[in-house]
Protein backbone atom coordinates (compact mmCIF):
# COMPACT_ATOMS: atom_id res chain seq x y z
CA UNK A 1 0.00 0.00 0.00
CA UNK A 2 1.44 3.45 -0.89
CA UNK A 3 2.26 5.98 1.85
CA UNK A 4 -1.02 7.80 1.26
CA UNK A 5 -2.94 4.71 2.42
CA UNK A 6 -4.85 4.64 -0.89
CA UNK A 7 -4.56 2.06 -3.63
CA UNK A 8 -2.99 3.19 -6.93
CA UNK A 9 -4.13 4.82 -9.11
CA UNK A 10 -5.36 7.08 -6.39
CA UNK A 11 -9.18 7.05 -6.30
CA UNK A 12 -11.05 10.09 -7.53
CA UNK A 13 -14.36 8.84 -6.13
CA UNK A 14 -15.47 6.84 -3.12
CA UNK A 15 -18.66 5.27 -1.86
CA UNK A 16 -18.78 5.12 1.91
CA UNK A 17 -21.46 3.03 3.58
CA UNK A 18 -23.06 3.84 6.91
CA UNK A 19 -21.20 0.88 8.49
CA UNK A 20 -17.87 2.51 7.56
CA UNK A 21 -17.07 0.38 4.47
CA UNK A 22 -15.05 2.45 1.96
CA UNK A 23 -15.24 1.49 -1.73
CA UNK A 24 -12.70 3.24 -3.96
CA UNK A 25 -12.92 3.87 -7.69
CA UNK A 26 -12.68 6.52 -10.37
CA UNK A 27 -15.04 9.48 -10.56
CA UNK A 28 -17.41 10.03 -13.46
CA UNK A 29 -20.13 12.62 -14.01
CA UNK A 30 -20.52 15.51 -11.60
CA UNK A 31 -18.07 16.27 -8.83
CA UNK A 32 -19.37 16.74 -5.31
CA UNK A 33 -20.92 14.56 -2.63
CA UNK A 34 -24.41 13.21 -1.99
CA UNK A 35 -26.02 10.98 0.60
CA UNK A 36 -28.67 8.39 -0.18
CA UNK A 37 -29.65 4.74 -0.05
CA UNK A 38 -27.69 2.41 -2.32
CA UNK A 39 -29.80 -0.05 -4.25
CA UNK A 40 -28.86 -2.34 -7.13
CA UNK A 41 -30.67 -2.44 -10.46
CA UNK A 42 -30.37 -5.58 -12.60
CA UNK A 43 -31.76 -4.23 -15.91
CA UNK A 44 -29.49 -4.83 -18.90
CA UNK A 45 -30.83 -1.88 -20.88
CA UNK A 46 -32.34 1.53 -20.20
CA UNK A 47 -29.81 3.24 -17.93
CA UNK A 48 -30.95 6.65 -19.15
CA UNK A 49 -34.60 5.97 -18.30
CA UNK A 50 -33.56 4.55 -14.91
CA UNK A 51 -31.41 7.56 -14.04
CA UNK A 52 -34.24 9.96 -14.93
CA UNK A 53 -37.00 8.04 -13.11
CA UNK A 54 -38.15 10.31 -10.25
CA UNK A 55 -38.89 7.27 -8.08
CA UNK A 56 -35.13 7.03 -7.48
CA UNK A 57 -34.97 10.34 -5.61
CA UNK A 58 -32.84 9.85 -2.50
CA UNK A 59 -31.10 6.77 -3.95
CA UNK A 60 -27.70 5.85 -5.36
CA UNK A 61 -28.02 3.19 -8.05
CA UNK A 62 -25.44 0.50 -8.60
CA UNK A 63 -25.94 -1.24 -11.93
CA UNK A 64 -25.24 -4.98 -11.97
CA UNK A 65 -24.93 -4.90 -15.77
CA UNK A 66 -21.25 -4.09 -16.36
CA UNK A 67 -21.43 -1.93 -19.51
CA UNK A 68 -23.28 1.25 -18.71
CA UNK A 69 -22.98 4.29 -20.96
CA UNK A 70 -21.91 2.39 -24.06
CA UNK A 71 -24.91 3.51 -26.16
CA UNK A 72 -24.61 7.13 -25.07
CA UNK A 73 -27.67 9.28 -24.35
CA UNK A 74 -30.24 11.27 -26.29
CA UNK A 75 -32.98 13.80 -25.60
CA UNK A 76 -35.79 11.29 -26.11
CA UNK A 77 -35.24 8.62 -23.45
CA UNK A 78 -35.80 10.84 -20.43
CA UNK A 79 -38.50 9.93 -17.92
CA UNK A 80 -38.80 13.14 -15.88
CA UNK A 81 -41.58 15.30 -17.28
CA UNK A 82 -39.46 18.41 -16.92
CA UNK A 83 -36.60 17.11 -19.08
CA UNK A 84 -33.93 19.38 -17.65
CA UNK A 85 -34.91 18.87 -14.02
CA UNK A 86 -33.04 16.42 -11.86
CA UNK A 87 -34.97 13.26 -11.06
CA UNK A 88 -33.55 13.43 -7.56
CA UNK A 89 -31.29 10.39 -8.04
CA UNK A 90 -28.21 10.93 -5.86
CA UNK A 91 -25.57 8.99 -7.76
CA UNK A 92 -24.60 5.95 -9.81
CA UNK A 93 -22.04 3.19 -9.46
CA UNK A 94 -20.63 1.25 -12.42
CA UNK A 95 -18.30 -1.66 -13.01
CA UNK A 96 -16.46 -0.60 -16.16
CA UNK A 97 -15.24 2.73 -17.46
CA UNK A 98 -17.56 4.51 -19.87
CA UNK A 99 -16.66 3.81 -23.50
CA UNK A 100 -17.36 6.01 -26.54
CA UNK A 101 -21.07 5.96 -27.39
CA UNK A 102 -22.06 3.51 -30.11
CA UNK A 103 -25.68 3.90 -31.18
CA UNK A 104 -27.41 5.72 -34.03
CA UNK A 105 -29.74 7.48 -31.56
CA UNK A 106 -26.93 8.80 -29.36
CA UNK A 107 -26.52 12.55 -29.36
CA UNK A 108 -24.22 12.85 -26.38
CA UNK A 109 -21.62 11.13 -24.27
CA UNK A 110 -22.91 9.54 -21.03
CA UNK A 111 -20.19 11.04 -18.83
CA UNK A 112 -20.89 14.61 -20.02
CA UNK A 113 -24.61 14.01 -19.61
CA UNK A 114 -24.17 12.84 -16.00
CA UNK A 115 -22.13 15.96 -15.31
CA UNK A 116 -24.74 18.24 -16.91
CA UNK A 117 -27.50 16.66 -14.81
CA UNK A 118 -25.47 16.88 -11.61
CA UNK A 119 -25.31 13.11 -11.11
CA UNK A 120 -22.23 11.98 -9.19
CA UNK A 121 -20.73 8.69 -10.37
CA UNK A 122 -18.19 6.08 -9.36
CA UNK A 123 -16.77 3.59 -11.88
CA UNK A 124 -14.32 0.72 -11.86
CA UNK A 125 -15.51 -1.09 -8.76
CA UNK A 126 -16.59 -4.68 -8.15
CA UNK A 127 -20.34 -4.15 -8.45
CA UNK A 128 -20.96 -7.87 -7.86
CA UNK A 129 -19.35 -7.62 -4.43
CA UNK A 130 -21.41 -4.50 -3.63
CA UNK A 131 -24.59 -6.25 -4.78
CA UNK A 132 -23.80 -9.30 -2.65
CA UNK A 133 -23.23 -7.02 0.30
CA UNK A 134 -26.65 -5.36 -0.20
CA UNK A 135 -28.32 -8.77 -0.63
CA UNK A 136 -26.76 -9.93 2.63
CA UNK A 137 -27.13 -6.83 4.77
CA UNK A 138 -29.97 -4.96 3.04
CA UNK A 139 -30.10 -1.65 1.17
CA UNK A 140 -27.34 0.53 2.61
CA UNK A 141 -27.28 4.22 3.50
CA UNK A 142 -24.19 5.83 2.05
CA UNK A 143 -22.38 8.88 0.77
CA UNK A 144 -20.92 9.07 -2.75
CA UNK A 145 -18.09 11.52 -3.37
CA UNK A 146 -16.31 12.54 -6.56
CA UNK A 147 -13.25 14.77 -6.19
CA UNK A 148 -10.79 15.06 -9.09
CA UNK A 149 -7.93 15.73 -6.66
CA UNK A 150 -8.78 12.67 -4.62
CA UNK A 151 -9.06 14.68 -1.45
CA UNK A 152 -11.35 12.79 0.94
CA UNK A 153 -11.85 13.48 4.63
CA UNK A 154 -12.81 9.94 5.54
CA UNK A 155 -13.72 10.58 9.17
CA UNK A 156 -16.17 13.33 8.23
CA UNK A 157 -17.61 11.37 5.30
CA UNK A 158 -18.17 8.26 7.42
CA UNK A 159 -20.04 10.41 9.93
CA UNK A 160 -22.18 11.91 7.12
CA UNK A 161 -23.06 8.46 5.78
CA UNK A 162 -23.98 7.24 9.24
CA UNK A 163 -25.95 10.38 10.00
CA UNK A 164 -28.19 10.23 6.92
CA UNK A 165 -31.68 9.53 8.31
CA UNK A 166 -32.64 6.88 5.71
CA UNK A 167 -35.68 6.56 3.47
CA UNK A 168 -38.06 5.28 6.15
CA UNK A 169 -40.35 8.16 7.06
CA UNK A 170 -39.01 10.34 4.25
CA UNK A 171 -41.63 12.18 2.19
CA UNK A 172 -40.09 12.94 -1.21
CA UNK A 173 -43.17 12.94 -3.46
CA UNK A 174 -44.18 16.47 -2.56
CA UNK A 175 -40.68 17.76 -3.49
CA UNK A 176 -40.52 16.06 -6.89
CA UNK A 177 -44.09 16.72 -8.06
CA UNK A 178 -45.12 19.31 -10.64
CA UNK A 179 -45.77 22.80 -9.28
CA UNK A 180 -48.48 23.39 -11.86
CA UNK A 181 -51.39 21.56 -13.41
CA UNK A 182 -50.84 20.68 -17.08
CA UNK A 183 -52.37 18.55 -19.82
CA UNK A 184 -50.72 15.70 -21.75
CA UNK A 185 -51.41 14.23 -25.21
CA UNK A 186 -48.06 12.80 -26.38
CA UNK A 187 -48.22 9.15 -27.49
CA UNK A 188 -45.56 6.41 -27.66
CA UNK A 189 -42.39 6.47 -29.76
CA UNK A 190 -42.60 4.78 -33.12
CA UNK A 191 -39.91 3.74 -35.54
CA UNK A 192 -39.24 6.54 -38.08
CA UNK A 193 -41.95 8.74 -36.56
CA UNK A 194 -40.77 9.43 -33.03
CA UNK A 195 -43.43 10.50 -30.54
CA UNK A 196 -46.95 11.24 -31.74
CA UNK A 197 -50.04 13.15 -30.57
CA UNK A 198 -53.31 11.63 -29.53
CA UNK A 199 -56.02 12.54 -32.03
CA UNK A 200 -59.36 11.51 -30.59
CA UNK A 201 -59.73 11.22 -26.83
CA UNK A 202 -62.28 8.77 -25.44
CA UNK A 203 -61.71 9.44 -21.74
CA UNK A 204 -60.56 12.22 -19.46
CA UNK A 205 -58.11 11.05 -16.79
CA UNK A 206 -56.72 13.06 -13.89
CA UNK A 207 -53.22 11.79 -13.10
CA UNK A 208 -51.84 12.78 -9.72
CA UNK A 209 -48.11 13.34 -10.07
CA UNK A 210 -46.10 11.94 -7.14
CA UNK A 211 -43.05 11.63 -9.43
CA UNK A 212 -44.70 10.46 -12.64
CA UNK A 213 -42.82 8.93 -15.58
CA UNK A 214 -43.39 10.12 -19.14
CA UNK A 215 -44.06 6.64 -20.43
CA UNK A 216 -47.07 6.23 -18.15
CA UNK A 217 -48.56 9.43 -19.56
CA UNK A 218 -47.81 8.27 -23.11
CA UNK A 219 -49.47 4.90 -22.57
CA UNK A 220 -52.55 6.62 -21.15
CA UNK A 221 -52.61 8.78 -24.31
CA UNK A 222 -52.11 5.67 -26.51
CA UNK A 223 -55.23 4.25 -24.88
CA UNK A 224 -57.36 7.26 -25.78
CA UNK A 225 -57.01 9.22 -22.53
CA UNK A 226 -56.80 12.99 -22.44
CA UNK A 227 -54.76 13.56 -19.29
CA UNK A 228 -54.80 16.42 -16.79
CA UNK A 229 -51.83 16.16 -14.44
CA UNK A 230 -52.22 17.59 -10.92
CA UNK A 231 -49.65 18.22 -8.18
CA UNK A 232 -49.24 15.61 -5.42
CA UNK A 233 -50.89 17.86 -2.86
CA UNK A 234 -54.21 18.08 -4.78
CA UNK A 235 -57.09 17.32 -2.45
CA UNK A 236 -59.79 14.78 -3.26
CA UNK A 237 -62.22 17.64 -3.98
CA UNK A 238 -59.71 19.31 -6.33
CA UNK A 239 -59.19 16.04 -8.21
CA UNK A 240 -62.93 15.42 -8.65
CA UNK A 241 -63.57 19.07 -9.61
CA UNK A 242 -62.02 18.18 -13.00
CA UNK A 243 -64.88 15.70 -13.50
CA UNK A 244 -62.52 12.87 -14.53
CA UNK A 245 -63.73 9.60 -16.06
CA UNK A 246 -60.83 8.01 -14.20
CA UNK A 247 -58.08 8.88 -11.73
CA UNK A 248 -54.50 7.67 -12.04
CA UNK A 249 -52.14 7.54 -9.01
CA UNK A 250 -48.50 7.68 -10.08
CA UNK A 251 -45.22 6.15 -9.03
CA UNK A 252 -42.87 8.24 -6.92
CA UNK A 253 -40.00 8.33 -4.43
CA UNK A 254 -39.81 7.98 -0.66
CA UNK A 255 -41.86 6.23 2.00
CA UNK A 256 -45.58 5.83 1.18
CA UNK A 257 -46.47 6.06 4.89
CA UNK A 258 -44.96 9.57 4.94
CA UNK A 259 -47.64 10.88 2.55
CA UNK A 260 -50.39 10.31 5.13
CA UNK A 261 -51.09 14.01 5.62
CA UNK A 262 -52.11 14.75 2.03
CA UNK A 263 -52.08 11.93 -0.56
CA UNK A 264 -53.74 9.22 1.51
CA UNK A 265 -56.85 11.27 2.45
CA UNK A 266 -57.16 12.55 -1.13
CA UNK A 267 -57.05 8.98 -2.46
CA UNK A 268 -59.65 7.85 0.10
CA UNK A 269 -61.98 10.62 -1.10
CA UNK A 270 -61.53 9.57 -4.75
CA UNK A 271 -62.16 5.90 -3.94
CA UNK A 272 -65.31 6.77 -1.98
CA UNK A 273 -66.66 8.61 -5.03
CA UNK A 274 -66.64 5.39 -7.08
CA UNK A 275 -64.51 6.94 -9.84
CA UNK A 276 -62.44 4.31 -11.71
CA UNK A 277 -58.96 4.45 -10.18
CA UNK A 278 -55.63 2.90 -11.23
CA UNK A 279 -52.37 3.16 -9.25
CA UNK A 280 -48.77 2.21 -10.02
CA UNK A 281 -46.01 1.60 -7.45
CA UNK A 282 -46.08 4.49 -4.93
CA UNK A 283 -49.68 5.05 -6.09
CA UNK A 284 -50.40 1.37 -5.34
CA UNK A 285 -48.80 1.59 -1.90
CA UNK A 286 -50.67 4.77 -0.93
CA UNK A 287 -53.93 3.26 -2.21
CA UNK A 288 -53.23 0.22 0.00
CA UNK A 289 -52.82 2.53 2.99
CA UNK A 290 -55.95 4.53 2.07
CA UNK A 291 -57.91 1.25 2.03
CA UNK A 292 -56.70 0.35 5.53
CA UNK A 293 -53.51 -1.63 4.83
CA UNK A 294 -49.92 -1.01 5.86
CA UNK A 295 -46.61 -0.90 4.01
CA UNK A 296 -43.24 -2.26 5.08
CA UNK A 297 -39.64 -1.47 4.14
CA UNK A 298 -38.12 -4.35 2.18
CA UNK A 299 -34.70 -5.87 2.84
CA UNK A 300 -33.15 -4.95 -0.51
CA UNK A 301 -36.14 -4.00 -2.66
CA UNK A 302 -36.82 -4.92 -6.28
CA UNK A 303 -35.10 -2.93 -9.02
CA UNK A 304 -34.84 -4.53 -12.45
CA UNK A 305 -36.60 -5.53 -15.63
CA UNK A 306 -36.97 -9.30 -15.28
CA UNK A 307 -39.23 -9.81 -12.26
CA UNK A 308 -41.85 -12.55 -12.67
CA UNK A 309 -45.30 -11.71 -11.34
CA UNK A 310 -48.41 -13.88 -11.31
CA UNK A 311 -51.78 -12.36 -12.07
CA UNK A 312 -53.94 -14.38 -9.67
CA UNK A 313 -57.13 -13.37 -11.49
CA UNK A 314 -56.03 -15.03 -14.77
CA UNK A 315 -53.29 -17.43 -13.64
CA UNK A 316 -50.90 -15.86 -16.16
CA UNK A 317 -47.28 -14.97 -15.38
CA UNK A 318 -45.82 -11.75 -16.72
CA UNK A 319 -42.22 -10.55 -16.67
CA UNK A 320 -42.20 -7.07 -15.22
CA UNK A 321 -40.15 -3.99 -14.59
CA UNK A 322 -39.77 -3.16 -10.91
CA UNK A 323 -38.43 -0.34 -8.81
CA UNK A 324 -39.50 -0.34 -5.20
CA UNK A 325 -38.05 -0.53 -1.69
CA UNK A 326 -41.37 -0.59 0.18
CA UNK A 327 -44.23 -3.05 -0.24
CA UNK A 328 -47.85 -3.45 0.82
CA UNK A 329 -48.09 -6.00 3.62
CA UNK A 330 -50.73 -8.42 2.29
CA UNK A 331 -51.66 -9.58 5.80
CA UNK A 332 -52.84 -6.07 6.68
CA UNK A 333 -55.30 -5.73 3.77
CA UNK A 334 -58.83 -5.57 5.15
CA UNK A 335 -61.76 -7.69 3.94
CA UNK A 336 -63.02 -6.45 0.57
CA UNK A 337 -59.50 -5.71 -0.70
CA UNK A 338 -58.33 -8.58 -2.87
CA UNK A 339 -54.68 -9.37 -3.66
CA UNK A 340 -54.55 -9.72 -7.46
CA UNK A 341 -50.83 -10.10 -8.21
CA UNK A 342 -47.90 -11.67 -6.41
CA UNK A 343 -44.12 -11.65 -6.94
CA UNK A 344 -42.77 -15.06 -7.92
CA UNK A 345 -39.38 -14.06 -6.50
CA UNK A 346 -40.43 -13.57 -2.89
CA UNK A 347 -44.22 -13.79 -2.65
CA UNK A 348 -44.60 -10.09 -1.87
CA UNK A 349 -47.77 -8.24 -2.82
CA UNK A 350 -47.82 -6.91 -6.38
CA UNK A 351 -51.42 -5.87 -6.92
CA UNK A 352 -54.83 -5.27 -5.40
CA UNK A 353 -58.40 -4.48 -6.35
CA UNK A 354 -61.68 -3.71 -4.67
CA UNK A 355 -64.58 -6.10 -5.05
CA UNK A 356 -67.29 -3.44 -5.01
CA UNK A 357 -65.72 -0.50 -6.88
CA UNK A 358 -63.62 -0.04 -10.06
CA UNK A 359 -60.35 0.46 -8.19
CA UNK A 360 -57.08 -1.44 -8.77
CA UNK A 361 -53.33 -0.99 -8.61
CA UNK A 362 -50.01 -2.76 -9.16
CA UNK A 363 -46.65 -2.59 -7.43
CA UNK A 364 -44.62 -2.98 -10.61
CA UNK A 365 -44.28 -0.86 -13.76
CA UNK A 366 -46.53 -1.83 -16.69
CA UNK A 367 -45.15 1.17 -18.59
CA UNK A 368 -41.68 -0.47 -18.32
CA UNK A 369 -39.29 2.06 -19.86
CA UNK A 370 -37.08 0.22 -19.50
CA UNK A 371 -38.39 -3.32 -19.53
CA UNK A 372 -40.76 -5.85 -21.06
CA UNK A 373 -44.22 -5.02 -22.39
CA UNK A 374 -46.08 -7.97 -20.89
CA UNK A 375 -48.15 -5.83 -18.50
CA UNK A 376 -49.59 -3.23 -20.87
CA UNK A 377 -52.96 -4.98 -20.65
CA UNK A 378 -53.44 -3.12 -17.37
CA UNK A 379 -53.98 0.16 -19.23
CA UNK A 380 -56.80 -1.58 -21.07
CA UNK A 381 -58.25 -2.81 -17.80
CA UNK A 382 -58.38 0.83 -16.75
CA UNK A 383 -60.06 2.05 -19.94
CA UNK A 384 -62.48 -0.91 -19.80
CA UNK A 385 -63.49 0.26 -16.33
CA UNK A 386 -64.13 3.76 -17.64
CA UNK A 387 -66.09 2.32 -20.60
CA UNK A 388 -68.20 0.24 -18.21
CA UNK A 389 -68.94 3.32 -16.09
CA UNK A 390 -70.23 5.01 -19.28
N1 LIG B 1 -41.34 3.34 -8.23
C1 LIG B 1 -42.00 3.75 -7.18
O1 LIG B 1 -43.07 4.35 -7.27
C2 LIG B 1 -41.35 3.50 -5.83
C3 LIG B 1 -42.29 3.60 -4.66
C4 LIG B 1 -41.59 3.73 -3.32
N2 LIG B 1 -40.83 4.95 -3.27
C5 LIG B 1 -40.71 2.53 -3.05
O2 LIG B 1 -39.50 2.62 -3.09
O3 LIG B 1 -41.21 1.46 -2.79
Automatic annotation (TrEMBL):
Stretches the record annotates as CPSase: 1-195
Entry's transmembrane regions: none
One function term, GO molecular function aspect: carbamoyl-phosphate synthase (glutamine-hydrolyzing) activity
Domain of life: Bacteria
Annotated L-glutamine binding sites: 55, 252, 254, 282, 285, 323, 325-326
Alphabetic keyword roster: Amino-acid biosynthesis, Arginine biosynthesis, ATP-binding, Glutamine amidotransferase, Ligase, Nucleotide-binding, Pyrimidine biosynthesis
SMART domains to which the protein is assigned, alphabetical: CPSase_sm_chain (SM01097)
Biological pathway: Pyrimidine metabolism; UMP biosynthesis via de novo pathway; (S)-dihydroorotate from bicarbonate: step 1/3; Amino-acid biosynthesis; L-arginine biosynthesis; carbamoyl phosphate from bicarbonate: step 1/1
Catalytic activity from the UniProt record: hydrogencarbonate + L-glutamine + 2 ATP + H2O = carbamoyl phosphate + L-glutamate + 2 ADP + phosphate + 2 H(+); L-glutamine + H2O = L-glutamate + NH4(+)
Active site: 281, 365, 367
Segments forming domain Carbamoyl-phosphate synthase small subunit N-terminal: 11-145
GO biological process, one term: L-arginine biosynthetic process
EC number: 6.3.5.5
Subunit structure: Composed of two chains; the small (or glutamine) chain promotes the hydrolysis of glutamine to ammonia, which is used by the large (or ammonia) chain to synthesize carbamoyl phosphate. Tetramer of heterodimers (alpha,beta)4.
Family named by the database record: Belongs to the CarA family.
Biological function: Small subunit of the glutamine-dependent carbamoyl phosphate synthetase (CPSase). CPSase catalyzes the formation of carbamoyl phosphate from the ammonia moiety of glutamine, carbonate, and phosphate donated by ATP, constituting the first step of 2 biosynthetic pathways, one leading to arginine and/or urea and the other to pyrimidine nucleotides. The small subunit (glutamine amidotransferase) binds and cleaves glutamine to supply the large subunit with the substrate ammonia.
NCBIfam families per UniProt: CPSaseIIsmall, PRK12838.1
Protein name as it appears in the record: Carbamoyl phosphate synthase small chain
Lineage, highest ranks first: Bacteria, Pseudomonadati, Pseudomonadota, Alphaproteobacteria, Hyphomicrobiales
Gene coding for it: carA
Amino acid sequence: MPDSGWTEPRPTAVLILADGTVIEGQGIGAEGEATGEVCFNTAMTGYQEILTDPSYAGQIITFTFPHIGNVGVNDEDIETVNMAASSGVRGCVLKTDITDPSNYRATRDFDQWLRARGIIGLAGIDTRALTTLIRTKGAADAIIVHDRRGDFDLARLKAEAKGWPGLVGMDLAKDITTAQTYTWDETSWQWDKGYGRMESPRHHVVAVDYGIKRNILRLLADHGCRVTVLPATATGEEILAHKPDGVFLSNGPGDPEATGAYAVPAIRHVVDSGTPTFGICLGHQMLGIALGGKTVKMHQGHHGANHPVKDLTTGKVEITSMNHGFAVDTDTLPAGVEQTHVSLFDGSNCGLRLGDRPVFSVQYHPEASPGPRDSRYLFERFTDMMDAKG
